[in-house]
């Protein structure tokens, strides 16, 4: 019989089969529906009708066969579903019970090779209430097939009830198989495939409504709304007007809706296609449907009918080629894998009422599942004659249930608006409710602020608390009365100085006096940074034209007579008592220059009213008081400094001014925050990241830390919480809107990813608008605009730029908004999230950079014909790279110097790459991806010579992750370093040398040799001998050095005698525990410590071989280092131990604790603790004892002794947690032969961890192994072993050579 | 005899002008943006550019007068002759 014959799967089934095999536990491959039947059901007629219909529908009896190589299927009557009748009429709530049972059933996956593909169930709720559930695997049926089957059951039921003959039988599955086979080999299929491949040859990537990787989940969210009858009537009128079927009209509008969210000019949506018209298989209940990818150009501008016509035309063409499987097309195009999709959201139109008509019964149909939902599906279902319901089904991995509900409401509204629109441009994206909330409710920030000036607020405070400390700088205080007097005296002098006074002072008390004086004189201050090159200063001075500059006398030459300089020494000390004019609220308070895209810096003019609002908001919102101590560390040219300077002065708090340059030095900042009991500090996030890695920052406690200037990464927020004790607040705002306009508490309970920029401050508005200026709905990216009292007056002398960026507020008459150029979105809770720049502007460490300004500087040099500046992200840092085509005969190496003369240092590219031509793509546009990455290669010739140079060269290479060796003349910054990696380098320097000369020193001496000189010159005056590496003996340079590793106490001085006893004399370096220094955390593991030592010795002596020796714990460390060195392919010479035993021996013994550590300290100092029974074992008395004794340990300061105790305790822990690996060489073991009586300690215990153990018996106690007698035995044996190893090493090299 | 819910729906549906072969030809032509004379009785409507959504829309339109038309039958043989035969048969059967 033909029905039992095995068939290959149809093309339509194949895609599903593989999807199901990949995700066998997903129950959504079962499609299903339930129908509530109300009225007197003729149970016998129903059962007979159902039995006949399922017998006709062969597909329900399919059995899938997972044959090797190719899946097959056969019609097997044993698989045919039999109606299951379930009586729930005794349940308290039978309908609820039925729904629960149906939900359970639909959530149960089936195995199509074993289980029946279909189930038919009738729930009896009562005499006149039934629920009929059908569940059929998608391999057997599609949505249209389900309708055919259901309608057939109804037809058979009605015919039986009426006693008439039913219509024609459903055709058998063989018809569908035959059609599939015919199409597979047909020319039509070839043509269809060619059509699609051509159409998609240049298709863009798929964009959707939510970010993320769509893949089928085991469940979906669903929310439904009814399209209003009036709207549906209007849609049908549009259909009538355009002669386009209304379902195609709705599809086109839904595609436009998708486009609004994707933000791309073109979208690709999926349109389910029944693939039945004109097919002999049209009436076969089976799986035939296909999903057609539809490319839709959603560009706005034209009229609506033209748009609808274009989409309808695409749809007609797609359907004409609609039998070609989209899975096949995806393979043809190589669009395989989650993110390389063929289409985004599905738009499914069901323009017929699927509800069957059972005579005498009312039916209510619910479609439970139509297959897995990868992304989001918009289904429009006709019901009754004129009802249209929109169902939104979405993948819960990508969409919250709230966002699904929001899409349902928003799309319904979009269609309502579209049905009355003349063009797409007339249709808002957001609903009226969303618009009201976003534009008005969230921006309802009106707050009464006194209409006054910053000068008046400061004057009021100075009068209120004259004796309170106002300023503190370098240990010097200034009270409010003094500030009042000095600023008044200077203000009187300034009052006749035009309207802008430049201030070019370094951080100092005078700087603050100057700023306050300028404000009190009723003038605006213009901060200048003298680090900037002359050319830039001149341009700013030419633009702002200040009459006077307040600067130090020694800097006067920078102004070359362009403007008069008034140095602090010439400032009047005492006020004359003349009345000060004082500013009005609408007068300018300051002018700050920012980078401009045209190459010309732009001066932003901020008025008093604006900055007063910002400061009063901050003071109230965070509860600042006279008790606060606010750190001023931001350069005055960066507007964050404005609140640092003035918030304390209007709150009666103390302004603590950090030393010049301290803002870039984590160590200095940590110290000042601790020593000055700072309550509030600001960090640019990238600097905060560097600060948190500073060991001495750990555990610092402040009231609050503010971040702004660049994006605050969520990971950094989390790291902040683990490191510091302080509130963390994220602020956002451009210079053009008085410092900050939004705030977000990134407190302990903040889990946001990304961290929002939050909500508007007082009297301020944030808008996220699309390219047409329409407000965006939640979660949709748009352009961020700002409004309110804080907006700048504009750009000084540049009305053109001002009107370009400051525009009329479209939603509030007579107000302005500022176009930030930033992208953002509103979260559903109303918080704004920053998404990056919309143009080529970049930020480097919080400083806004217009690449155009840098490009202009390159062009102005006359050296290049073409230039492109890129901010490249490389190993986590952003660096500026210039790509240039040089003028004939020009030398590109001079370009950097030329640019540095015009630009501040942070804007000078780290690399300049000369190209013959700039690469362009097919459209003639610059192909950014084709620009080569810069190569920061070594340029030097001389090998590092001294130990300091060698170590330093190794640290440069490690920090910059360079593969190649670093030469002595190499410049850290030329190798790709920037100020952030410089901070990290200094941490390494401190770990290796015990101190670092600071960031400023690295900037002045960035080469290996130069910085090494500084390091040596600035070695701590009082060398305690606790540096991580000490030189015990300086020996013959041609002999490989011996590295000796500290015992438990972490100090290596004990090896001095042995080191000096070796002949020939060779260099002996002692490694000491880094954790001896206060603030250095203990190592994670012995393994980590060994790795650190290996890195250190390799940096110092890259050539090898490495001779290692360790006493006690030092021997354990030496073995672990030998293992690591051998693994890395480095040569290990001698591995010697002074009476060390493997960790296994110690693991079982109790941790000796602090007592044990103190006893060890005594032993290190040469005392036998057992002979000191009267000595109390606590730190204070042990310290006192050591001081009184002649031990060199007694000379150590308390902190260092504490360090030793900590290291001993730490080493006890490390040893117990360590597990050895095997070392392939041999161990030379010096055993303390007089010790260990009655203890199970033997060098043989190392045998599992080395190739061989050679034991030398030394007639000594363990504690005396570095004493004079033991050294007499050990030194000759060791010296010989070293010589023998080196000789064999040379022989090996010679042989190999 | 009790009034069946299905009948109620049919009663409230407004009666439309009866469907004829020529109104069908005109409707199809309009859907295809063609003149009615371009639609031959035996032409494959698929070849003329008809797609399933348009076909379904036509079937729905012709059912508005109360005729119980089944799209599945129309899908099997999409020509004007084939469709007119289906409509005529239903009209004779009284809906």
From TrEMBL, chain A:
GO terms for molecular function: 2,3-dihydroxybenzoate-serine ligase activity; phosphopantetheine binding. Gene3D superfamilies: 3.30.300.30, alpha/beta hydrolase, Chloramphenicol acetyltransferase-like domain, N-terminal domain of ligase-like, Nonribosomal peptide synthetase, condensation domain. One of its GO terms (biological process) is enterobactin biosynthetic process. This is Enterobactin synthetase component F. Keywords: Phosphopantetheine, Phosphoprotein. The keyword Cytoplasm does not apply. Residues 943-1019 form the Carrier domain. Its cofactor is pantetheine 4'-phosphate.
Automatic annotation (TrEMBL), chain B:
Gene3D superfamilies: ACP-like. InterPro entries: ACP-like_sf (IPR036736), PP-bd_ACP (IPR009081). Residues 15-91 form the Carrier domain. This is Aryl carrier domain-containing protein.
């Amino acid at each position: 019989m033909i029905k039992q014959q095995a068939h290959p799967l149809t093309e339509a089934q194949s895609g599903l089969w593989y999807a199901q095999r990949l995700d066998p536990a997903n129950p959504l491959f079962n499609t299903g529906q339930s129908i509530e039947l109300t009225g007197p059901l003729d149970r016998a007629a129903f059962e007979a009708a159902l039995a006949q219909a399922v017998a006709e529908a062969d597909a329900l009896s399919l059995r899938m066969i997972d044959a090797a190589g190719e899946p097959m299927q056969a019609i097997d009557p044993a698989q045919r579903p039999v109606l299951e009748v379930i009586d729930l009429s005794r349940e308290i709530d039978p309908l609820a019970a039925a729904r629960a049972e149906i939900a359970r059933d639909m959530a149960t996956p089936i195995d199509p090779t074993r289980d029946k593909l279909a189930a038919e169930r009738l729930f009896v709720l009562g005499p006149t209430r039934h629920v009929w559930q059908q569940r059929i695997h998608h391999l057997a049926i599609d949505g249209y097939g389900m309708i055919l089957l259901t309608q057939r059951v109804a037809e058979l039921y009605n015919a039986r009830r009426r006693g008439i003959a039913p219509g024609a039988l459903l055709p058998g599955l063989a018809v569908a198989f035959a059609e599939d086979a015919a199409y597979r080999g047909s020319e039509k299929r070839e043509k269809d495939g060619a059509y699609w491949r051509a159409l998609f040859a240049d298709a863009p990537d798929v964009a959707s409504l939510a970010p993320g990787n769509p893949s089928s989940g085991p469940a979906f969210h669903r929310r439904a709304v009814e399209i209003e009858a009036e709207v549906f009537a209007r849609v049908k009128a549009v259909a009538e007007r355009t002669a386009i079927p209304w379902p195609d009209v709705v599809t086109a509008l839904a595609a436009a809706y998708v486009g609004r969210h994707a933000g791309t000019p073109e979208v690709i949506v999926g349109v389910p296609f029944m693939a039945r018209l004109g097919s002999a298989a049209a009436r076969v209940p089976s799986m035939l449907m296909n999903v057609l990818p539809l490319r839709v150009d959603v560009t706005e501008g034209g009229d609506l009918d033209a748009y609808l016509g274009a989409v309808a035309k695409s749809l007609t063409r797609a359907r004409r080629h609609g039998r070609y499987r989209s899975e096949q097309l995806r393979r043809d195009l190589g669009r395989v894998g989650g993110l390389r999709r063929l289409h985004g959201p599905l738009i499914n139109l069901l323009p017929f009422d699927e509800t069957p008509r059972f005579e005498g019964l009312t039916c209510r149909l619910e479609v439970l599942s139509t297959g897995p939902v990868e992304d989001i599906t918009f289904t429009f279902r006709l019901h009754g004659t004129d009802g249209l319901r929109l169902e939104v089904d979405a993948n819960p991995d990508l969409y919250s249930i709230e966002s699904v509900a929001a899409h349902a409401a928003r799309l319904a509204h979009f269609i309502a608006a579209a049905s009355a629109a003349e063009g797409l441009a007339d249709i808002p994206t957001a609903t009226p409710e969303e618009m009201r909330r976003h534009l008005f409710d969230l921006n309802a920030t009106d707050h009464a602020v006194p209409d006054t000036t910053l000068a008046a607020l400061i004057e009021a405070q100075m009068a209120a608390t004259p004796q309170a400390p106002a300023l503190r700088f370098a240990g010097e205080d200034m009270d409010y009365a003094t500030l009042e007097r000095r600023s008044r005296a200077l203000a009187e002098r300034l009052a006749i100085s035009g309207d802008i006074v430049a201030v070019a002072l370094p951080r100092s008390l005078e700087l603050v006096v100057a700023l306050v004086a300028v404000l009190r004189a009723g003038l605006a201050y213009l901060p200048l940074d003298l680090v900037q090159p002359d050319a830039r200063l001149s341009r700013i001075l030419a633009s702002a034209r200040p009459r006077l500059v307040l600067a130090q006398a020694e800097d006067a030459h920078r102004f070359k007579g362009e403007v008069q300089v008034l140095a602090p020494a010439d400032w009047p000390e005492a006020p004359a008592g003349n009345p000060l004019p004082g500013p009005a609220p609408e007068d300018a308070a300051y002018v700050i220059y920012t980078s401009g895209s045209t190459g010309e810096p732009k001066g932003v003019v901020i008025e008093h009213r604006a900055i007063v609002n910002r400061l009063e908001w901050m003071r109230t919102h965070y509860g600042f008081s006279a008790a606060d101590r606010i750190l001023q560390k931001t350069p005055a040219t960066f507007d964050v400094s404005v609140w640092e300077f003035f918030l304390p002065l209007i709150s009666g708090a103390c302004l603590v001014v950090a030393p010049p340059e301290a803002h870039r030095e984590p160590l200095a900042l940590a110290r000042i925050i601790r020593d000055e009991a700072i309550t509030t500090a600001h960090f640019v996030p990238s600097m905060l990241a560097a600060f948190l890695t500073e060991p001495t920052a750990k555990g610092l406690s402040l009231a609050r830390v503010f971040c702004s200037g660049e994006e605050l990464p969520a990971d950094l927020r989390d790291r902040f919480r683990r490191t510091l004790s302080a509130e963390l607040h994220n602020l956002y705002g451009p210079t053009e809107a008085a410092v900050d306009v939004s705030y977000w508490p990134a407190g302990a309970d903040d889990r946001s990813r990304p961290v929002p920029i939050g909500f508007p401050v007082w009297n301020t508005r944030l808008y996220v608008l699309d390219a047409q200026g329409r407000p965006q709905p939640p979660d949709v990216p748009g352009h961020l605009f700002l409004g309110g009292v804080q907006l700048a007056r504009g750009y000084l002398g540049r009305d053109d730029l001002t009107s370009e960026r400051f525009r009329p507020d479209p939603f509030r008459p007579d107000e302005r908004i500022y176009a930030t150029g930033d992208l953002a979105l509103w979260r559903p809770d109303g918080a704004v999230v920053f998404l990056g720049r919309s143009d080529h502007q970049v930020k480097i460490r919080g400083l806004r950079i217009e690449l155009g300004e840098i490009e202009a500087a390159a062009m102005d040099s006359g050296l290049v014909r073409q230039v492109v500046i890129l901010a490249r992200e490389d190993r986590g840092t952003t660096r500026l790279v210039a790509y240039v085509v040089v003028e004939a005969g020009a030398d590109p190496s001079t370009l950097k110097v030329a640019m540095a003369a015009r630009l501040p240092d942070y804007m000078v590219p780290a690399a300049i790459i000369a190209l013959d031509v700039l690469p362009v793509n097919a459209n003639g546009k610059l192909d950014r991806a084709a620009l080569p990455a810069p190569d920061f290669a070594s340029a030097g010739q001389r090998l590092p010579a001294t130990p300091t140079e060698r170590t330093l060269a190794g640290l440069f290479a490690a920090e910059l992750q360079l593969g190649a060796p670093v030469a002595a003349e190499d410049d850290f910054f030329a190798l790709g370093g920037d100020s952030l990696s410089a901070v990290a380098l200094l941490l390494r320097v401190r770990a290796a040398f015990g101190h670092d000369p600071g960031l400023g020193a690295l900037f002045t001496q960035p080469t290996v040799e130069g910085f090494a000189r500084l390091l040596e010159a600035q070695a701590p005056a009082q060398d305690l001998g606790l540096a991580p590496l000490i030189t015990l003996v300086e020996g013959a340079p041609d002999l490989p050095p011996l590295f000796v590793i500290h015992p438990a106490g972490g100090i290596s001085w004990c090896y001095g005698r042995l080191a000096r006893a070796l002949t020939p004399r060779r260099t002996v370096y002692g490694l000491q525990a880094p954790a001896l220094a206060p603030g250095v955390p203990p190592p994670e593991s012995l393994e980590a410590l060994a790795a650190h030592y290996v890195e250190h010795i390799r940096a110092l002596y890259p050539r090898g071989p490495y001779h290692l020796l360790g006493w006690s714990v030092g021997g354990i460390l030496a073995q672990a280092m030998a293992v690591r060195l051998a693994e890395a392919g480095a040569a290990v010479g001698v591995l010697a131990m002074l009476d060390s035993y493997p960790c296994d021996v110690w693991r079982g013994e109790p941790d000796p604790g602090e007592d044990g550590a103190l006893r060890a300290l005594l032993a290190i100092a040469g005392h036998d603790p057992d002979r000191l029974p009267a000595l109390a074992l606590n730190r204070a008395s042990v310290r006192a004892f050591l001081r009184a004794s002649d031990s060199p340990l007694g000379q150590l300061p308390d902190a260092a002794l504490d360090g030793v105790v900590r290291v001993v305790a730490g080493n006890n822990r490390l040893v117990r947690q360590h597990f050895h690996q095997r070392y392939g060489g041999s161990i030379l073991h010096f055993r303390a032969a007089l010790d260990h009586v009655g203890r199970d300690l033997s060098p043989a215990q190392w045998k599992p961890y080395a190739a061989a153990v050679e034991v030398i018996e030394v007639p000594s106690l363990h504690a005396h192994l570095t004493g004079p007698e033991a050294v007499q035995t050990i030194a000759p044996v060791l010296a010989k072993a070293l010589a023998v190893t080196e000789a064999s090493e040379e022989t090996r090299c010679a042989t190999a050579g | 005899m009790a009034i069946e819910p299905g009948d109620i729906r049919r009663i409230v549906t407004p009666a439309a002008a009866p469907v004829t072969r020529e109104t069908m030809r005109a409707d199809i032509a309009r859907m295809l943006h063609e003149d009615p004379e371009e639609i031959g009785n035996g032409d494959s409507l698929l070849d003329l550019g008809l797609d399933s959504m348009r076909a379904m829309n036509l079937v729905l339109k012709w059912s508005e007068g109360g005729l119980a038309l089944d799209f599945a039958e129309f899908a099997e043989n999409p020509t004007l002759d084939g469709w007119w035969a289906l409509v005529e048969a239903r009209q004779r059967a009284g809906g």
